[in-house]
Amino acid sequence: MGSLLYSLSHAANFYPASELFLRHRLQVVEELWESVLRQECGQTMVDLLRQLRDLCSPEGQATNDQAASAVKLIEQLNINEAIRAARAFALYFQLINIIEQEYEQRQQLTRYSEGEAETVIQEEALSNAIYSSNQNEDDVIPVNKGMEIDILSKSWLAKSIGKQKGTFATLFPHLFKLNVPPQQIQRLISHLDVRLVFTAHPTEIVRHTIRDKQRQVVNLLQKLDLVENRTDSTLGGYPWEAADLREQLLEEIRLWWRTDELHQFKPTVLDEVDYALHYFQEVLFDGIPQLYKRLKYALGKTFTWLEPPHKNFCSFGSWVGSDRDGNPSVTPEITWQTACYQRKMVLERYIKSVKQLIELLSVSMHWSDVLPELLESLEMDQSQLGDVYDALALRYRQEPYRLKLAYVLRRLENSRDRNVALYNREKSTKEDSPMYRSGSEFLAELRLIERNLTETGLSCRELETLICQVEIFDFNLTQLDIRQESTRHSDAINEILEYLQILPQSYNELSEEQRVTWLTGELQTRRPLIPAELPFSEKTNDVIETFRILRSLQQEFGVNICQTYIISMCREVSDVLEVLLLAKESRLFDPAIAVGTIQVVPLFETVEDLQRSRSVMRQLFELPLYRALLAGGYEAIKASKEEGSSLPIIPTTASPLTPNLQEVMLGYSDSNKDSGFLSSNWEIH
Prior knowledge:
The protein is mostly helical and 685 residues long. Among the domains are: 267-473, de novo design (two linked rop proteins) (Up-down Bundle), CATH 1.20.1440.90; 479-684, no CATH class. The chain is 62% helix and 5% strand. It is built from 25 helices and 8 strands. Helix 1 (19-41) runs antiparallel to helix 4 (79-134) and helix 8 packs antiparallel against helix 9 (239-257). The longest helix has 56 residues, at 79-134. It is globular, with a radius of gyration of 30 Å.
């Protein structure tokens, strides 16, 4: 659970990881649980729950008689008692889970600590082996000797968590041991691209209030551990501290008991968005930069001459607020608000970080040089944000980094205020104020500060972390993936054509071959098909407005905010071409140059569709217009032919999408319902 993650900065010897400690901590939690129930439900209920728990305990391998006794005991409960019993055991198991997870994390910390001393000699030997490989003329194939192989083998198979298979700490030594060419490793690292996508499951929403209670219990238990260890060790401690923390735990668990576990209303789509953003707030926003640092550190320990991956090697997508398949609550306006909501969160985090940097970077011109480019930047800032200069110049006149960051802060605040206006569909009062329109503008300012620090012999970890966060999350946090069911597109086109009376018969009555022929021809025309004012049904208007909002999103937030359009229940080539036609009508695809700003992703779900998917994609790739779209436009194909290359060269004005890349999704859920577990997995395979 993300809410249970905590800093591992304390020494491992403060966190005993023995089974005895686990049992002691479980006993503390059980005592607290019983105390809460005694105060809230009475001693009779506590006795009943304790009896029921003992009858169901796995430790004693309950007999049939015990199971029958437990059932009889439950049957004797009235409805109110049954509800209280269910809530009590739900609380009990959540508390036990907290203890077990905390215990596992502390075991990991202990193993890390124990492994450090053990690996010092091994790392020295490994370093010597790597040094030898660096002296090779070709600098490609590492040189391994018997001792180094033995050391690396032990390192790869070691039990300590710091050296377990699959960790960065063992991955690169293992690659070294296998004589993997460094160029191959560099190529893989340079092209490392991990994209994690959040999907919407509103039935699984847990209240933030409950998560906050859980997090508070974790924090108090951590403090209790430290106090108890200080009391028992030579460091000294006060017994009353432990008693006070137990009292706080009791109070917190009582408040938890009196809190509804679930909302008493149906969650909205924006509630789902807020739930998904919780993981970014509590875990990912700080955790991914830490992951990058661990990867960079582990790589440098073994392959010192290799370049680390780009900081945005990991990116995120989201269906929350943009997946409209079967969810009529996801409207074009909701998708717009979702994009604004995500930007609001990320801007507030950046504002907080910049305020911290203002406190940290107190460097004075009396004691440190300042490069001309920073001074020039400050002069430009003064001309654009004179009020900031008037308010802070006297205070920061000798502190250039603080003054620069004050300008950065004001621009971020203006960006945030404008985003609020966009969310509310209001005209921003800050429209003409200096602000950052994109994360790249903000990033350029941060790199300017970083360069000046580096050139003058300084560094700032907090600044490095912020730069990493901006490279990963930009101003959009995640890329929104649009998903819609295939028949919604064909029905919309059918209604549009019937209204315009273009075809002699209904579009839905056409064969697949006729549809492909008409769609291919229509895609290459320049005239608009859909009028500005929409006289169609609500469903058709919703489909059209979805594409129009995508255009607005890309104009306001940049193309990266939404580049993926997923067609669920995709069956035919026409399903993909229909989406392209609707995209063309909203200027997301230009048929004249075959360049688009969205990638259409077919999702094959039923067994029959999975079996036909290869044939469908082959037919799609054989269409010249679609092949040109994948290649990056007609100009890209022309350039590739002129250069004699088998792959197109993308000109600067061509598609922002990755050339010659087609994403295809294979659905498990529907195929599993269609034919069962084994058949579904076989067809996907």
